[in-house]
Automatic annotation (TrEMBL):
This is Uncharacterized protein. It comes from the Eukaryota. Belongs to the 'GDSL' lipolytic enzyme family. One of its GO terms (cellular component) is extracellular region. Pfam families: Lipase_GDSL. Gene3D superfamilies: SGNH hydrolase (3.40.50.1110). PANTHER family: GDSL-LIKE LIPASE/ACYLHYDROLASE-RELATED, SGNH HYDROLASE-TYPE ESTERASE DOMAIN-CONTAINING PROTEIN. Keywords: Hydrolase, Lipid degradation, Lipid metabolism, Secreted, Signal. GO terms for molecular function: hydrolase activity, acting on ester bonds. Its main location: secreted. GO terms for biological process: lipid catabolic process. Transmembrane segments: none annotated. Residues 1-26 form the signal peptide.
């Protein structure tokens, strides 16, 4: 029982790897930016939920202006950087507090612990899974329509010019498929069938988002989860540095389905879906590639369960030398290079079929 719940908790939150540029006063290149996702993107939506998946306390936010907000890192998240690259002078407010006409410029719906499947993350407590996030966006859209004087055409024009990013699925692995061996669904689902099931549900969500007026939609694949501190700890302690290849392989079955999904969705009238090849732009087990020294251990002192930072405990002083802030979530330093490459590709495999800066200009 104890060990089963430990495993559950380990996956409650989650991760990836991504990196930037400070705020520059500029005119945004798109009117708004709407964000769907999990703890890698959450900016505070879980703060008032009954859940273990929370980060609104020190040392989280130690390098963020204003301190802890609910972000699962020391500083900015990848979506904060994308907001800056798009020219916004602020990061997108969580849906839980967004109000007034600020919603025209964007809202962040991401919720730690959330996944594509509705049961994902349940063990951690409350969270907004992907379809619940879509319901929140439906509320936003009706508020936007009011702000636009109930003018359907003006509302649609606004929504179609905005950028939408979606990064979800890590919890469906870390906090569901990979950690519930006793669950009968594992008998039913091979890794390939699991990936297919997730992508089928993702497709439904994306069509719902499209139906709510979104046209420029960025899909973030999953990073090399098998390289996270939570996964490599056992290997490291056995003196075998490296990633858990089996986990990376299982996740690749999900990631490999994105390019065909994008091709299919782009048949919808005026749709412009793109894919960010997160595995390709992440440092994996080569932290030196992003100028970081330590890639296999967290910067903060973590609770064994659920792998998040211990509340109030000082983190490592040299945060720029670490890829990971806690056992699952990258530091601001580690997240910036990938965010840059998603925005402005450096290699053809970084994005498919184009990067965010081009998408924004269409
Ligand atoms: C994503 O990156 C991987 C690893 O570098 C590569 O094998 C794959 O072809 C890339 N996918 C796309 C759609 O470019």
């Amino acid at each position: 029982m104890a060990s089963a719940s430990i495993i559950w908790f380990l996956g409650c939150i989650l991760i990836l790897s991504l990196n930037l540029t400070p705020f520059v006063a500029a005119v945004p290149i798109v009117p708004g930016y709407y964000i769907f996702g999990d703890s890698l993107a959450d900016s505070g939506n879980n703060n008032n939920l009954m859940t273990l998946a929370k980060a609104n306390f020190h040392p989280y936010g130690i390098d963020y202006p204003g301190g802890p907000t609910g972000r699962f890192t020391n500083g900015r998240t990848y979506v904060d950087f994308i907001a800056e690259f798009l020219g916004f002078d602020h990061h997108m407010p969580p849906f839980s507090t967004a109000n007034g006409d600020q919603i025209l410029q964007g809202v962040n719906y991401a919720s730690a612990g959330a996944g594509i499947r509705p049961e994902t993350g349940k063990i951690c407590g409350e969270r907004f899974h992907i379809m619940a996030q879509l319901d929140h966006h439906r509320t936003t859209v009706s508020r936007i329509k009011q702000l636009k004087g109930n003018n359907d055409q003006a509302t649609q024009e606004h929504l179609s010019k905005c950028i939408y990013t979606v990064g979800i699925g890590s919890n469906d692995y870390m906090n569901n498929y990979l950690v519930v061996p006793a669950n009968p669904k594992d008998v039913v689902f091979t890794p390939d069938k699991w990936a297919e099931d997730l992508i089928g549900r993702y497709n439904t969500f994306l069509r719902g988002l499209y139906d709510l007026g979104a046209r420029k939609i960025v899909l973030w694949g999953l990073g090399p989860i098998g390289c996270e501190p939570s996964q490599v700890k056992a290997l490291r302690m056995a003196g075998k540095p490296g990633c858990v290849d089996m986990v990376n392989h299982i996740v690749s079955l999900y990631n490999n389905r994105f390019a065909p999904l994008v091709d299919e969705l782009n048949k919808l009238p005026d749709a412009k879906f793109i894919f960010v090849n997160n595995t390709h732009i992440s440092p994996g087990n080569n932290p030196a590639s992003i100028g970081v020294k330590v890639g296999d251990r967290p910067c903060c002192t973590t609770v064994a369960v659920p792998g998040t930072c211990i509340r109030g405990m000082p983190p490592c002083p040299n945060r720029d030398e670490y890829s990971f802030f806690d056992s699952y979530h990258p530091t601001e330093k580690a997240v910036l290079p990938g965010a840059k490459r998603a925005f402005q590709a450096q290699e053809p495999q970084d994005v498919y079929p184009m990067d965010i800066s081009r998408l924004a200009q269409l």
